[in-house]
Give the backbone structure.
Amino acid sequence: MSQLELDAHVVELIRNRVANGEYPDASAVVREGLRLILKRIEPSDGGRVIQEASPSYDQEAARLIAVNLDQDVVERIRTLVDEQPEFADASAVVSRALYLLEDRAKFFHLRKLIAEAEAQIERGEFIRWRPGMMQELLELGRQRARDGLGPNPDVL
């Protein structure tokens, strides 16, 4: 194990993934995120990380907390910081890794919802679109808002 200082917010995100049982420990969380980063390194572009939209990381506002990670994970993080100008420090690498993990989880969830919808259609469990339906759905949404209910998170 090696100790690495990361932004407190990043450490909290790692701990949450371990606490909810997605991963056995912090190293497993970060290792999987790093795998996703490394898949996005474009050899034809001089080995640079393919740029994608992700939340910005404010190095100046960071409050650092030491976290213990497996040595191989720490070495990969340090290599990315040294070789990829996109990453100012270890927290930027791990923040990006966690963003990619969340993005992947959303993608798999969406695929599951699509498969469920296709199965419902095959069973005939659907409503055909008809004139006026959009207005009904808008009114239903407004009523949910008045009742203090937010939209279904699957439609956001």
